[in-house]
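To: structure desk
From: M.T.
Subject: fold request, one chain
Message: Could you run this one when you get a chance? Sequence is below, nothing fancy, just the single chain.
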Amino acid sequence: MKFGAGLTSAVPFLTEQCSDCQGKWRFFPVSLRSSLFQALHNSCREKSTVPKKIIPNIALCDKNTKESANALDKLFSSEQQASILHVLNTASNKELEAFKLLRGRKSINIVEHREKYGPFQNLESLTNVPLFQYKTAVQVCNSILCPETGAKKRKSQENRLLKKLIKPEIERERLKAINSIVSIVFGTRRIAWAHLDRKLAVLDWQQSESFQLMKGTYISSVYLEEISSVISKIPKADFYVLEKTGLSIQNSTLFPVLLHLHIMEAMLYALLNTTFAQGGQHQVLSMNRSAVGKHFELMIGDTRTSGKELVKQFLLDSVLKEEPRVFFPSDKIVHYRQMFSSTEHYRIEELYDSLLQAVAFYELVVFAPEP
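Reply: Done. Structure tokens follow.
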């Protein structure tokens, strides 16, 4: 009785200490209650200690976050912080998008955060906006302080457009000052070139057969001899524009053709620069074949169609129109028309493409208005 009385008197105290255990022990015999109750009590006590292990980690994360945010403010003077905050708190979505790093969702998130929580009080509050980690916030603040000027932005856009058309990169001033170019297109059986001045007058236009280059041996000396012979016939010009093929290296069946074209391009690039370049400046460029096709609307999907009919129209317009798109001098027009007629029944695409590439180069690169 003493044992039972002692256990009964201890129950209120123990159940107060372990509320999760209330009512669980009363279904067991008295002889088991003491040991069972102690086990349950220990189990509950172990569970209650789990949060204590997590709390220090949360506190550490909060401390690190606060230090990073404070570090953001320390990077800028009070005047700089005021300038940045003025933009963040007053600029519209469109005005924010004028900054390169705030395009798209970031500018929307800033405006939404501002509308929901009020103006930004300090720079560290920028890190509370979705998509703005510490490094991103630093870059955004710097871009607001030093925005890209209109002239710099236009120049950057202009350079991107030129990079899609020609390589290597050439100063815009040199391109604008061009007086004449030689456009060169090569295939598996011939090399053709067209020499045009800035009035789009055709000064020279011809081709050279090179049947023995595609025999599968790819002998360097043969390439050197053939291409050197062609270069000896090519007139002097400010720039020499080579067609950049669009063939994919992933198509294994075209690998022999692709290898041949790359060898041709490398040989022409090296020999033309050695022969004509002055002062160590680039005078040989590569032009994107697809860009030329798009300019003349010759593309069907990714495939470029023949430019024969377009060239035929250029020849006809040169006779019939006072201001044709391409001008063939009167002393050469008969010769060029005869040359075209004699090749019309054959696939002499290199001849047509060399002329079209020259016209596209002037219209897209030299005469193109600034963006």
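Reply (cont.): Residues 172 and 218 are 37 Å apart (CA to CA). Let me know if you need anything else for the meeting.
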